[in-house]
Write a structure and sequence with these properties.
- There is one protein chain.
- This protein is mainly alpha-helical.
- 41% of the residues lie in helices and 9% in strands.
- It has a three-stranded parallel sheet, with helices on both faces.
- The longest helix is centred in the last third of the chain and has 16 residues.
- It is globular and about 55 Å long.
């Protein structure tokens, strides 16, 4: 969800001239993950959350924590789990229309995935190609072999890659 916030900032706020680049670590399709994990229950929980909101209970927690096990209110659940919502900014499910906001970014952006990414539903190469097709000028994608979503035990490799990328964009 951190990457979602960064993409929102980059596309909806005036960017400070002091910001010379940004990094997206493991930007994953959260909604695709929820849909995959819930399967046929996805529509059920969307209905439950919408009913809660209709009954003025939008601040109450959705039962069973259906968003990847995290407790959240019905209002938040609808925002976080709805296709087309502001949170649905890494929609790799729809390859023709996914991540349209990327073409509007005009600063160097490093996108890093782990080779054993727990939450990347698509093949890394396919996702990397989407970024290249949308904005090859400003986006660079890297895959760290053997790293999971949290980059445990790969921190030195990750920090080295980030440091090298920063050197590239500063020069």
């Amino acid at each position: 969800t951190g990457c979602n916030k960064i993409s929102y900032y980059l596309t909806n706020q005036e960017i400070s001239e002091e910001l010379i680049g940004t990094i997206l670590l493991s930007p994953c399709d959260d909604i695709g993950i929820v849909k995959q994990e819930l399967g046929l229950d996805y529509d059920k929980y969307m209905s439950i959350a919408n009913d809660m909101i209709s009954n003025n209970n939008g601040e109450m927690l959705v039962p069973d924590n259906p968003f990847i096990g995290y407790p959240m209110s019905a209002n938040t659940y609808i925002y976080m789990a709805s296709e087309g919502s502001g949170h649905d900014c890494f929609d790799y499910r729809n390859k023709e229309e996914s991540i349209p906001w990327v073409k509007n970014i005009s600063m160097p952006t490093l996108v890093v995935f782990g080779g054993k990414e727990d939450y990347l539903l698509e093949d890394y190469e396919a996702v990397s190609d989407i970024y290249k097709e949308r904005n090859a000028k400003y986006f660079k994608t890297i895959n760290i072999n053997g790293a999971g979503h949290t980059y445990n035990n790969k921190e030195i490799i990750l920090s080295g890659l980030i440091g090298s990328w920063i050197d590239e964009i500063i020069i």
